[in-house]
Write a structure and sequence with these properties.
By secondary structure, the protein is mostly helical. It contains 20 helices and two strands. The chain has a two-stranded antiparallel ribbon.
Length: 437
């Protein structure tokens, strides 16, 4: 892993300059970041462009004052990436199989904005546009990098993510308050749930890459990544991350053996998880883990139950079409005082309810259609497709990270499927060439 820093010393230095500028002034750092983006494009350093975008999204999620430049830079950064893509479209000749299944969803979501409050229109438009670009432009960069740099790009990107976790652990021993929130570890992310989601998606990505490209990651490096993930999840006490990864590993075992054997396992898992959820306080306390797993907050899902109930009530007023992108954020923001008095601090904590509030039942159905189509497309050729599906479904049911377009989690999910889909696309191209000859 240290070899990554040596081979990419220029990129590492650039990131350190961004961090230093962020400590001095938010707008100075934003200007430096965007200037670097233009310079990277002039030097055709597309790989560094994407890595820099990953880093800015992480900083955009961070709550520290010195990281505020991430929030101000991420939108213009994405717009610059989009501009470069169109200006250099001849070098992006790929079929974007990730985007097409979501076209109808995006169309309905656009119409739904007309039903939302005027005060949320600008934010809704920005969120819709960033969602569109995340699915239409960013996968093209991934495909370009995979084609030009092969598995080296994938390996180095995993190492970059691992260094995100290492940075959080280093800061923990230097300035603990900077990487903790309400006594829980959050790393360089905004909150403990954030690092839990990131660790979940990174685990799925690492496991899938190691399965797809055996030997790509050195054994010691693989162990380091998994240890970093385990430490980060345990320090954050992220129950959702633990359960998502556990379900993934269970389904890997059974779906590898037989798809039919996996079906009863899924049913048992659903019934078992429902039972545990209904009795988890007593179970945790009986095991002596009440304090570690925050047993006092488990019964109401740390406020999630209240959020879900109120979201469902609000959904009834615009059941069919919803009220536009980011309406869930708007609703919880204008009612923040009421939720705080009730003991809930946060958002909706459920991707599917967020989609329903924002795009209505029609939008939710169309999004699920696109989402499931991605998985069904590769089920026959990638044995981990169904385990990935169930793990992501579970994780997204407790956090609305799939609704957010410019968070550091959704883009990793896009990367994961870009890797899988590109392989299928390349295979089709090869088969087509053979048949013509």
């Amino acid at each position: 892993m240290l070899d990554f820093l040596k081979r990419n010393a220029q990129f590492t230095l650039m990131i350190l300059v961004w961090v230093f500028c962020g400590i001095i002034n938010q707008w100075l750092a934003t200007a430096v970041v965007l200037a670097c983006v233009v310079l990277l494009k002039q030097k055709s350093m597309y790989r560094e462009l994407i890595w820099g975008f990953f880093f800015i999204l992480v900083m955009g999620d961070n709550r520290e004052f010195s990281a505020l430049y991430g929030a101000t830079a991420k939108v213009p950064y994405l717009l610059l990436l989009t501009t470069f893509y169109f200006l250099d479209s001849k070098n992006f000749k790929f079929k974007n199989d990730f985007f097409y299944p979501y076209i109808l969803f995006l169309a309905v979501a656009f119409v739904a904005m007309s039903q939302g409050p005027a005060a949320n229109l600008i934010n809704a438009t920005q969120k819709w546009l960033s969602f569109l670009l995340l699915y239409s432009v960013i996968p093209m960069y991934f495909l370009k990098m995979i084609k030009e740099h092969g598995t080296e790009f994938i390996k180095d990107t995993l190492y970059l993510f691992a260094f995100f976790l290492i940075a959080g652990l280093i800061i923990y021993f230097v300035s603990r308050s900077s990487v903790t929130l309400a006594g829980r570890y959050s790393g360089i992310f905004g909150n403990p749930n954030g690092i839990g989601i990131f660790c979940t998606i990174l685990f799925l990505l690492t496991f899938s890459v190691n399965y797809k490209f055996p030997g790509l990651l050195h054994r010691n490096d693989l162990i380091i990544v998994y240890v970093l993930l385990a430490i980060s999840i345990l320090m954050a006490a992220s129950r959702t991350a633990m359960m998502s990864i556990f379900l993934f590993l269970i389904f890997v075992k059974f779906f590898k053996t037989s798809y039919w054997l996996g079906i009863p396992v899924l049913i048992i898992a659903i019934i078992g998880y429902t039972f545990i959820s209904n009795n988890i306080v007593e179970i945790v306390k009986s095991l002596g883990l009440g304090e570690f797993l925050r047993a006092d907050n488990i019964e109401d899902g740390s406020g999630r139950t209240l959020a879900w109930k109120m979201a469902w009530i609000e959904i009834q007023s615009h059941f069919i079409l919803g009220r536009g992108f980011a309406y869930d954020e708007y609703y919880f923001r204008i009612n923040q005082d009421w939720f705080l008095r009730k003991g809930h601090n946060g958002g909706i904590h459920n991707t599917w309810l967020a989609l329903w509030m924002n795009a209505g039942v029609i939008g939710l159905a169309l999004y699920l259609f696109g989402f499931l189509k991605l998985f069904t497309r590769v089920i026959g050729k990638f044995p981990l497709a169904l385990p990935l599906l169930f793990s992501v479904l579970f994780s997204a049911s407790f956090e609305a990270w799939l609704m957010g377009s410019l968070n550091p989690f959704h883009i990793v999910f896009v990367l994961l499927f870009s890797i899988v889909i590109y392989d299928q696309y390349a295979t089709k191209q090869e088969e087509s060439a053979v048949s013509v000859l």
